[in-house]
Structures are given as structure tokens and as C-alpha cells.
């Protein structure tokens, strides 16, 4: 498999000396979906901040519906056909319907009612594994009840400014008859292309982080978002097919990645685990994980006209540098 890229050069005159300045830009094409992305020289687009996110969280806590004083009477319950108790519990994780539904089956699951603030360095395999387990149980229950809802995804807008309307950290599940755009594009990728892509990344080594057993991790060649990582779970195509071992393995890899983000100075992330219909032959269940800009007065959003309206990443963290920074954790 060929990794396609185009090298561009921008030329301008230095405002003081009048000398010619040349800037290199690399346009890369994602081998799976054909999305392109612009890798630009390091220019501090994603600074680590000193904003006091914990203080922000405390300020917001008295109104939070997911905290222990309010969760029981402010969060909705699942219909009995999905779960007779109205909520799916695992360890400290609690899953309930999303009051603001995005699909015919839309849910929220918190890591713990007591964790209104959960910085990335405090994420643990237990917290993530239990939360994933509630999402998997939900997807299974919904698909058993409503066979048309074949498309399941597990997602996260973790804290601000990842897009969360509620500060309290949680995952969001969507189980629907209609795929999202990326679910559709990924499900249309011929199975052989997934295996060629993974083999090419394994051979190249520069973006390959490692495998955690049955799950392979790498930094995206053409990232949509900063410090973007991808993981591929062979042999299953839907979150509803994840067994206890795979849930634990996925939680292990996600925790390694999030702890690494914390070390790199990032505070929030987005996650999408793109499920296809269960049993879709040759489709490896796969995810994207990426960090978001840190809050600060006059901070720069990482979501610009390029990302939102051109579907084009503009990234100043080279994927190879991200892999070098994070890969060691996956090889220990
Ligand atoms: Zn809360």
C-alpha cells in the first residue's frame, strides 16, 4: 500500500528583512477513506495551558445532574424492554438515556457519579472498562430489541472544550438504523484495504504504536484532529460483539493513550468507536481518539473552517512525533 502525500511550498517576504521565507506543507491522504489532511510546521497550535479546569468544574458542580445528589431524580430511565431497572450499572459506571437524543437510541454513561472532574492522568483501566461495559450491554440490548438499529458507536466529548454540554465526564452511545457519515465511509472500505493498511503501518513502524493482544494501535497517517490515534479490533465489527476480554483490552489501550495525552499537556479529548452492523465480514471495529485545544483566555479552537467545512485536518503535531512520544507505553 502506498501512503500518498503531496509536498507544497508557500513563499512570502519577511516583513523586516525582505528575505524570502519558504514554508513546507504536506497534504496527506488517508489510505482508508481518502480524507486529506495538512501537516504544517510546528507553530504552537496546541499549547499546554495553565487554565484551572478543576476550579471551573467546582463552579459548575452545584447544578450538575450527574452528581450523587441529583442523578437519581434528574436523569431519565431506559424503557423496561431495554433494561428492567432503567439504568445499566457496572462498577461505578451508570448508563441512562440521553435526554437530548441524537438517534432512535441515544445514551449517556458516566464513569462515576462521584467523578465530576476526571483529568486524563487520573483515567484508569477499571473506570474506562466499566464504562465501556455499560455501553456494550446497551448496544446488545437495543439490537436484540430493535434489529434495524444495526449501527452502534461509542463516543466521547471529554470535558471542555471537547464539545460536552455537561462538564461531568461521560461516554455517549448511539445505536441507530442510520450510520453516521464516517461509519458509512468506513464500512464501505474493502476488507483487504484494512489489512494492507495495518501491514504497511506495521512494516513502516514510524506511526505504529503496538498491539495490546488482539487490538492494534497507531498514529493516523492523515489525522483529522490533533494527536490522533487509531485502534483496530480484528474479528468483530460492532461494539455489541465485544466480550469481557476485548472490553478490558480496549480500556487498557485507551488508558495508556489518555495518560500519554495528559503527559503531553492535553486536558480533553474526543473519541469515536465506529461500529458497523454486527458480523459485517472483514470489517475491523475501529476507533479514532484525538485531543482538543486547552482552555485559556483568547484560546485558539482546533475546529476551524478547514476541519468543519472542508473536512480537512490542519495539524502541526507530526503523526510520527506523536507515535514516538506515545509508542513506548504500548511496547512496555
Ligand atoms: Zn457532576
Layout of strands and helices, then pairs:
Layout: E1 5-13, E2 20-29, E3 36-39, H1 53-60, H2 71-74, E4 88-90, E5 93-97, E6 105-110, H3 125-145, E7 151-158, E8 170-176, H4 181-187, H5 191-204, E9 208-211, E10 215-219, E11 229-233, H6 244-263, E12 269-274, E13 285-291, H7 305-309, E14 313-315, H8 319-331
Parallel strand pairs: 3-14
Antiparallel strand pairs: 1-2, 2-3, 4-5, 5-6, 6-8, 7-8, 7-12, 9-10, 10-11, 11-13, 12-13
Helix pairs in contact: 3-6, 6-8
The structure holds zinc ion.
Properties at a glance:
HIT family, subunit A, 10-stranded antiparallel β-sheet, 4-stranded mixed β-sheet, binds zinc ion
Question: Structural class given helices, strands, pairing?
Answer: alpha+beta
- 3D shape: globular
Helix and strand string, N-terminal first? EEEHHEEEHEEHHEEEHEEHEH
Spans of at least 5 consecutive residues whose pLDDT stays below 50 are none
